[in-house]
Amino acid sequence: MYKYDQYDQQIVDARVEEFRDQVKRRLAGQITEDQFKPLRLMNGLYLQLHAYMLRVAIPYGTLDSRQMRMLATIARKYDRGYGHFTTRQNIQYNWIKLSDAPDILADLATVEMHAIQTSGNCIRNISSDQYAGAAADEVADPRIWAELLRQWSTFHPEFSYLPRKFKIAVIGAEEDRAAMRLHDIGIQLVKRDGVLGGRIYVGGGMGRTPMIAPEIKDFVTADDLLSYVEACLRVYNRYGRRDNIYKARIKILIHEIGADDYRRQVEEEFAHVKSLGLDPPKAEFERITAMFAPPSFVAADTPATPFVSSEVETPASATGVSTALEANGDFQAWRAQNTAAHKQPGYAIVTISLKPTGGIPGDATAEQIDLMADLAERYSFDELRVTHAQNIVLPHVRKADLYAVWQALDAAGLAPANLDLISDIIACPGLDYCSLANARSIPVAQKIATRFADQNRQRDLGELKLKISGCINACGHHHAGHIGILGVDKKGTENYQLLLGGSGAEDTSLAKITGPGFDEDGIVDAVETVTNVYLAKRAEGERFLDTYRRVGMEPFKEALYG
Amino acid sequence: MDKCNTPLPLAGGAGGGPVADAPANPADSPSPNPSRKREGDRTEGDEPAVTLDAFLDSQTNATAVRLEAGDDARALLPYLDRIALVEVSFPTFRDGRGYSAARVLREAGYTGELRAQGDVLVDQMPLMKRCGFDSFAPQAEIDPATLEAALTRYENVYQKAADGRVPVWALRHG
Description:
Chain A has about 550 residues and is an alpha+beta fold.
């Protein structure tokens, strides 16, 4: 994992003092709310319906147990004892006092954390594959590139007042677990003739005008990375529209001038920018690479580690060898559903689902956050990840320890065996919290999860990514849902449109609206209706998405509106 | 407030030293380049800055140009050696096109005065300085103590920009 040196720490400490001064000036009336707004937004502080919301950055979704425990501490000390993990791999606190915000940032800075650029019209926190460094199908660890970009983008003097927000994702595998092509810039690491480089996609995004990013450059090495993205951003900053915030994202620019013209201008700018010496030397890439070196994995036949937690008592006798307890069906189901292949023999990647039936997707209590930190420290080389699907990953768990991990999770309500199933729902905070929302998202998610609570039924439906947004800004990624739900305001009442066929994976596609919307109970019925069509129509081995792509919208429409 | 109030000069113009070395009060500091006087450059009777169109269209010998937010600074690149002042307009602090305009001019070797004019606020000025601005004509008054704190707050920067500051990657690797 990346560790701060004196320079990183000084920059984050200075940021705390800067924001403390800005809050003081705001509270003293020396700056207006309009002038203060972009300053607080660049520190992740939103004014929501009921209170301030603070969004804390978790760069590329990676953190250690000490940082995770600090997130729990902040939940207890400044909020209501819980936090909300987001689709941007960050965490949000929904009940923050403005006057507390500088102290929270100071607390975060003690564990190498901050809220820098988690909002505002600037380059946002860089996102990545939650399985980075662990995935069996990885070309290289994308977090090294993401860290280069994190530093480059932090307080970028030219790109802090962009036309609109700007999101960058980096992945290192063929399988896309980060919705890479739905970002303003998506980078996929690839090898060409043994050399590592990045394939650059620009101009994707969701929001009210969803677009899949076209490829702008087939290969950029790490030596040229920062100059290349600098050129990409400069062309955008020059031409991006400022007259209409709904047309200000880079996807609109590229749509209007075309990918070829944009590429030509970026190349021209790059030829100039590259001469300025903006790229760090190889030694910097190597310094960062060393910090992401694989942990010291142990051979597969070493005995399992007993678990001792401050929060949960777990029998230390779990040996990891097959026992009667391990034959436990719940454990087996969880293991089958929530673990993924690790590149190291004898290890697995564990996803902790924050989607219990009837719960709020992505929410975790301070106690649960502490427990996950304990488990990471004990069983996962002190590492955790936040996923864009609002779950938590323990990236490096020995298979021999899986049972002990599951027991501890299960005791804390953290063992739903539903990764990528219909109840593993992405949902934005919706009208329960958000001042932009037109409709509530959380109750719809809860009702759908409850309707499909039967585990066997969920497993029979298989991989089914359901995503709910409470307004067209699409924070709940409904465009990328196999089933998407969009909350709208219809003459003063909440109404929900149903969409089918989206994907945020390597087979990226945008979901299409089925037809007229439904009320809150109607949308739950409608979801059930389309899953029934799938069950009736599916061919051997087909997921919901595959069947939809094969048979098209008509059978679903017929069943819904026929 | 009058748009044409006296511009606020800054220590360390184009290519100037790091902010950490700046004297306590930037307004009182000597310019690192004594031959180019910023203070009082623009007084009553000074040549007014002409628009970019006027500059390009006529055979003017104007030496001061004003760029609006939508103007393309690259149009000035053939004429940099005869321009003494480029004033870049910030119609609202949210419009960040002027930051790129400044970078483009400095990267092309422009060494004359580069002035940020308009909705220029203290919290944006450190970034403007990094992009190469060396004078400021803010619409509203700036508190000197707040400005000084803002300009000296960050001892380190992550990027190489137009102000000559050494990025942390260079400090790390000599």
